[in-house]
Amino acid sequence: MKTTYVFGHRNPDTDSVCSAISFSYLKNQLGDTTRPRVLGHINKESAFVLNHFGVKEPEYLNNVKVQLRDVSYGKGLMLNAFASIKEVVDFMQDNHCTAVPIVDNNKKLISLITLKEIAMMFIENSKNHLNTSYEHILKAVNGREILRFREEFEGDTLAGSYQTQTFIEKTPLKQSDILIVGDRYKVLQHGIFSKVSLIVLTNDCSLDEELLSLAKTNKVSVISSSLDTYNTCTQIALSNYVKTILVNHSPSVFHDLDYLTDFVADATKLGHTNYPILNKKNECLGLIRITDIGNFEKKQVILVDHNNLEQSVPGIDEASIVEIIDHHNLGAIGTSIPINVRCMPVGCTCTILYQLFQEKNIAIPKDIAGLMLSAILSDTLILKSPTTTESDRIAVKALANICKEDYETYGYEMLKAGSSVEGLEVEDIIYQDFKSYKVGNESLGISQVITMDFDSIKEHLQEYVDKLNEIAKGDYSTVTLFITDIIKNGSYILFNDESKHIIEDSFGIPDIEEGTFIPDLVSRKKQMLPKIMESLERNN
């Protein structure tokens, strides 16, 4: 079953991390195959929660772009260097391809051979030298085994097709030679006495008892071909190991983790039709053809705690979104097919997940209950945020009972662990919970930090403002940082210089200064975001 990745937004907070883990657990209990992931480094609060309940941090997911491993390319399309040329040609015909990667015994790529190169070999090169095996010769000439004294042969092929006396007198035979001949007794005798390595009899001929005995004595291998002399000489050349005709030892290659979009761009420049695919160990996995690129599987993903493209993983437009669980306003994410969407006006995504556990009648383990409890306490500021609903309170009471925690005591301990800004760089503090939004043609960035230590930030106030100005010069018209103090039940606000009039209009504070404290302002979703969005809409 294909794995589905479950993840929250970029710059993951506690709800984003815990929702991904908890919902992945629920889906797996229901028979799906999912894995929780995070889209960035987790913050101190989330690290505290995972450590407190003994849960492993999810792996990082950098993007969900289509990779070559998602494409239905020719997996396993390759041949060993000791395959015969005939095997290669037959393989190409059977698999409808015009090239084959050639590998060693460890599947390391040696070359890429094309049908054109095989054809040119027969046109330009001598075909009378063999380096091959007994088995390959048997198959190439449609032969039957008579005598076998060795498994491999390397030597020249000679056809005993002219006058017997002339052949015997003018054709010295070496022990490495392969003699092709019909029922010509003297020529056969000459070949056996010369101890050639192999005699290939044509037209289904056999050796009489005398010559057979002599061949055994001289250890001359013998094969009988069903073909005539001309066709035997032609077909036996196809028995050569393919390694004997390889010319391209540095073919253009791609790796299974390469992105499809990059492959298409590079392949267009290179202009070839076929490319070997390697894994990270540089082992060959098969062959990809330009005609394969339209047949691929998108990565399956479930979004939790967000539904906005700008907040999601890079490459989300190349993925297949199969489900969304969220408690935010609907963003601009579209799907090609109907999916399950559960968006509710509650304080936390994990409140919705608690309800789903109840609806599916799935028991919640202590560690999962602890994660969900932590997420709700974090998002609702221990049930003090205006986003808090009765559903959040019900979930907190039930989850606290399962994991045996006093939710208020634990909640303050959790927020205290995550609120320290000591030792963090200005940029790290701004981006640890930073979200982007679109308002018409404007881009809005809102960062929120929960800490009881505003004085530490105030000491470097101008550095924060400078960084907000720098961020705004990119794609944002308005960038804000709210420093929320849950004890004082309000937030200090910092903003980029160009957005001062927007902030004044949003919160009704004329000539507002950096670091102004706004009482009762604690919720980004219900208080900060709506006010700034309304102001941007009024002023555009």
Overview of this protein structure:
By secondary structure, the protein is α/β, with parallel strands linked by helices. It folds into four domains: 4-65 and 299-418, inorganic pyrophosphatase (n-terminal core); 69-124 and 244-292, CBS-domain (Roll); 143-226, Udp-n-acetylmuramoylalanyl-d-glutamate--2,6- Diaminopimelate Ligase, Chain: A, domain 1 (3-Layer(aba) Sandwich); 426-538, DHHA2 domain (Diaminopimelate Epimerase, Chain A, domain 1). Helix content is 37%, strand content 22%. The protein is built from 19 helices and 24 strands. A six-stranded parallel beta sheet has the order 3-2-1-17-18-19. Strands 8-10-11-12-13-9 form a six-stranded mixed beta sheet, sandwiched between helices. Helix 2 (44-52) crosses helix 14 and helix 12 packs across helix 14 (407-419).
SSE layout:
Layout: E1 4-7, H1 14-29, E2 34-38, H2 44-52, E3 59-60, E4 74-75, E5 79-80, H3 85-95, E6 99-103, E7 109-114, H4 115-124, E8 129-133, H5 134-140, E9 143-147, E10 152-159, H6 164-170, E11 178-181, H7 185-193, E12 198-201, H8 209-217, E13 221-225, H9 229-236, E14 254-255, H10 260-270, E15 274-278, E16 284-289, E17 300-304, E18 320-326, E19 340-343, H11 349-360, H12 366-379, H13 390-403, H14 407-419, H15 426-431, E20 434-439, E21 442-450, H16 454-458, H17 461-475, E22 478-485, E23 490-495, H18 500-507, E24 516-519, H19 524-538
Parallel strand pairs: 1-2, 1-17, 2-3, 5-6, 10-11, 11-12, 12-13, 14-15, 17-18, 18-19, 21-22
Antiparallel strand pairs: 4-16, 6-7, 8-10, 9-13, 15-16, 20-21, 22-23, 23-24
Helix pairs in contact: 1-11, 1-12, 2-14, 11-12, 12-13, 12-14, 18-19
